[in-house]
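I'll show a sample.
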Amino acid sequence: MSDIAGYTVDAVQAWLSDHAAFLTPPFTWTRLEGGHSNLTYLLTDQSGQTVVIRRPPLGTLLPKAHDMAREWALLQALEASPVPVARPIAFCADPAVTGAHFYVMGHVDGAPLYTSADTERLAPLPTRQGLAHSFIDVLADLHALDPDQVGLGELGRKEGYIARQIKTWYRSWTASVGPAQLDDPRAHELRDYLLAHLPDQGPARIVHGDYGLHNCLIGPDQTVAAVVDWEISTLGDPLADLAYALNQWPEQVAGEDTLPHSPTSPPGFPSRHDLARRYGQRTGRDLSHLDYYLGFNRWKSACIVHGVYARYMEGKKSTDGVDLPALRHSIDRSLTQAQDALNRL
């Protein structure tokens, strides 16, 4: 068992004997894909019980990247809430055990949807409307929570979420222009517009930061059985979180370029507008400025992909099998979609 990447198996199993006594080692380790490169394994003990273990990837990490303690805090806080999460079992804050913090959570019977093929396989046509409603209802339930009341009042700064995000991602864009050998005046114009038209932020809420079907485990009943990957969650503007989630859903707008292989591209799903209306009815929030948030997220996506493209062009990442023209197109497409959304205001 010495070939489990990132884990000193004997030390981890000994630690679990002390902190999860209901399990009977040794375990069978099965790698689970996804999750921002975090090293995530299904552990099956000698009696057939299953849990999931998770730690950051190997190598040097940015200070706030792959924050297992943050994920653990979210799981503990949300376990008793209406938001479905895996059961928190044990957290190891001693990197001497296996070189990094890690935690163990309950195994949830469900699977994420990454592609249209996943949707076709796991969510038959008659179930897709119910799946979409479950998806948006869970997000509404998350945004209904008062972070102070669930013990997450110190998760992040409560004010100025969008302004801080714009500052961060504009800095990324400008720093990447040289290595990427690519600039676009729209990135700068949109940044100026977004800052000049900042909506007032209401009470801060827990924002997942990457809420989508790829971070939801869809259960056998085609509803959200658990939300995963909480590592970049913070406090902020819930409408930014909503818009990020909605941008992954198609809208019946003439000429909109939807991604053909996304998990929401198959027929049978409600439109983005329908999901937004359901969220508004469930939360009572004013969505009159939703297009601002949709545009902001498209602009942010362009900045993120621009940074990735720069690292490829600079030789910091291997380009083997990477479609660089497709990345350039993605940047252009996101900026166009940002313009379109903001023009609807």
Observations:
- The first strand starts at residue 28 and ends at 32.
- The domain at 9-106 is CATH 3.30.200.20 (Phosphorylase Kinase; domain 1).
